[in-house]
Design brief:
The structure holds 2 protein chains of 2 kinds. Chain A is of the alpha/beta class. Chain A has helices at residues 9-17, 23-41, 49-62, 105-112, 155-162, 179-185, 219-229, 272-287, 303-318, 336-347, 350-363, 368-392, 415-419, 426-431, 460-474, 476-481, and strands at 44-47, 74-78, 116-121, 168-173, 188-191, 211-216, 259-262, 291-294, 395-399, 435-442, 448-455. In chain A, helix 4 links the parallel strand 2 (74-78) and strand 3 (116-121). The two termini of chain A are 23 Å apart. Chain B has a domain at 5-43. Chain B is 34% helix and 4% strand. Chain B is built from 3 helices and 2 strands. Chain B has a two-stranded antiparallel sheet. In chain B, strand 1 (84-85) and strand 2 (88-89) form a beta hairpin. The chains are: A alpha/beta, B mainly alpha. At the A-B interface, helix 9, helix 10, helix 11 and helix 12 of A face helix 1 and helix 2 of B.
């Protein structure tokens, strides 16, 4: 029973539902894997071993485990998503000791579906970054090469799943923070349509962009987790009432008959190793029944610039709440003004300060129209570009990131270079569309390369179905192990 | 628009963040480069294009009924405060002596 942690959500569920194994074994095996490996990976900020074992025993005793859609499935949660009675640090000094009094809707729904929370995973502070190096609480390493970054900001969640220290994990994606680390770690990660998953209990970064989504080792596993947490929540006014299907049961047809757009001009600057893997995946998609069509996204090249104005404007407002009064760190000084400024100086790291100041700048008197308003108009043009593409295509296919996983330290001193790591994921957030990253191949240096499929708003079904088809056609897992 | 140290000092006051001298130098240089980078948006023709603020892929009223609901228990909330006394958040003196 020692290898149960290697099982994905679907295989675990098949065995648990058949009564062939106990959730206690699944959790114990995964906790053993964490104990053996996480010192070298650094995926988790905190592990709830006793709670997880107790929950597994309770599920086993109640007999519910066999019936519940995620009964007995061990999951990890990014540490910007609240679980009652546990710390939610956002990997920031300012929230290092904050204990959440309530549970996020997404986590609550997964728990209600039988999932067992193993612990909280590392991230870039407040989800601001693309390498998890902006964490104030520790370094996460890429399980494929410990000298390299796991991507970010959901780097801990992606690394935990890749190293088989969880069957699935929750991340959050504001500009690529689920998809880019999934690509870097050779796993599957999905950002659903904006509004599909309630953000109640997700610590806000940029509210017009933030979305929670799953990371797992197969498309079917991602579908199983996603369908368990989507749907309207009265506690999040942006959550949608659109019906949620059993997408995991509709994956069979794959890419057959789908028209897949490729925005070739926008993709001109990708790394040669990524291009090789992407072109090979395109050929496989064609063999899998897709019609490939060249399309254009004329304004996508402006997406990174528009994003850094919009996201940081919203962040500067959202992070105003960390004032040393209600929760978190407080600097002890004599006056209220000094308390605010010293608390925030001591509590926030360099990237968070940079973004708050940039956001404050673009919203300040005299610059609002030139920067913030103009960025919102460019956002509208990017949305129109996607609408034109999806009038003729079912899906859009792009690399997830322009490079394979980069080295730790390689980009940390150059913010703009780091931002460009999200060049292909950011437009999707600006348009609020569903996007999935799945691994399609390895570079010569045995580093994973991910491809992104994007669909129409609320069309998670085609995105997942197409991804399942591409996954089968590429056979990444067989080749990665072999 | 050139970002200089005076701009940064102004933004520090607006954002209630205090930077030390090293940070000011570094962030001035970095923000100047980031603002130069986002300047590319000025070249996009947006005449007649409406801005996108909050977005939703569903039409209709998103507001719930205006009805009374239970919040979190007061003790649970104040239990997270760095300083709380007698059911209140406690902060340094807000109104300076002699201002009344």
């Amino acid at each position: 029973m020692s290898a149960l942690h290697t099982l994905g959500v679907s295989e675990l569920r098949a065995r648990l539902a058949a009564g062939e194994m106990s959730p206690v074994d699944a959790v114990a095996s995964t906790l053993d894997a964490i104990a053996a490996r996480d010192a070298g990976v650094g995926a988790y900020l905190e592990v709830f071993a006793d709670d997880a074992m107790a929950r597994a025993r309770a599920l086993a005793d109640s007999g519910d485990c066999r019936k519940l859609p995620l009964g007995g499935v061990p999951i990890a949660i990014k540490d910007n998503i609240c679980v009652a009675g546990k710390r939610t640090t956002c990997a920031s000094r300012i929230l290092r000791d904050y204990v959440s009094p309530y549970t996020a809707t997404a986590a609550e729904r997964l728990q209600a579906a039988g999932a067992i929370v193993l612990g909280k995973t590392n991230l870039d502070e407040f989800a601001m970054g693309s390498s998890t190096e902006n964490s104030a609480l520790g370094t996460t390493r890429n399980p494929w090469d410990p000298a390299r970054a796991p991507g970010g900001s959901s780097g801990g969640s992606a690394a935990a799943v890749a190293a088989e220290m969880a069957a699935a994990a929750l991340g959050s994606d504001t500009g690529g923070s689920i998809r880019q680390p999934a690509s870097f770690c050779g796993v599957v990660g999905m950002k659903p349509t904006y509004g599909r998953v309630s953000r109640y209990g997700l610590v806000a970064f940029a509210s017009s962009l933030d979305q929670i989504g799953p990371i797992a080792r197969s498309v079917a596993d991602v579908a199983l987790v996603l369908e368990a947490m989507c749907g309207h929540d009265p506690r999040d006014a942006t959550s949608l009432s659109a019906p949620v299907d059993r997408w995991s049961e509709r994956l069979e047809a794959g890419l057959e008959g789908m028209t897949v757009g490729v925005p070739a001009a926008f993709l001109a600057d990708m790394d040669a190793t990524v291009r090789a893997a992407f072109d090979a995946a395109l050929a496989r998609a064609r063999e899998g029944g897709a019609r490939i069509r060249e399309v254009t996204l004329p304004h996508a090249a402006y997406a990174v610039a528009a994003y850094y104005i919009i996201a940081n404007a919203e962040a500067s407002a959202n992070l105003a709440r960390y004032d040393g009064v209600k929760y978190g760190h407080r600097a002890v000084v004599d006056t209220l003004y000094d308390m605010y400024t010293r608390t925030r100086d001591q509590g926030f790291g360099a990237e968070v300060k940079r973004r708050i100041l940039l956001g404050t700048y673009v919203l300040s008197a005299g610059y609002y129209d030139a920067y913030y308003r103009q960025a919102q108009k460019v956002r509208s043009l990017i949305i129109r570009d996607f609408e034109a593409v999806f009038a003729a295509c079912d899906l859009l296919m792009m690399p997830t990131a322009p490079t394979p996983p980069f080295r730790l330290g390689e980009k940390i001193d150059d913010p703009i270079l780091m931002y460009l790591s999200d060049v292909y994921t950011i437009p999707v957030n600006l348009a609020g569309l569903p996007g999935i990253s799945l691994p399609v191949g390895l570079t010569d240096g045995r580093l994973p390369v991910g491809v992104q499929l994007v669909g129409r708003a609320l069309d998670e079904e085609r995105v997942l179905r197409g991804a399942a088809g591409l996954e089968r056609a590429c056979g990444f897992h067989e080749r990665a192990i072999g | 628009m050139k970002i200089d140290r005076d701009t940064i000092r102004h933004l520090e006051r607006l954002a209630r963040i205090e930077l030390d001298a090293d940070e000011v130098a570094r962030i001035t240089e970095q923000l100047d480069r980031i603002v130069a980078f986002v300047e590319q948006l000025q070249s996009v023709d947006t005449a007649g294009v409406p801005p996108t603020g909050l977005m939703s892929h569903e039409d209709g009223d998103r507001l719930r009924e205006d009805e009374r609901r239970e919040g979190l228990p007061r003790d649970a909330v104040l239990g997270q405060a760095p300083d709380a006394t007698d059911g209140y958040f406690r902060v340094p003196r807000v109104i300076e002596r002699g201002e009344s």
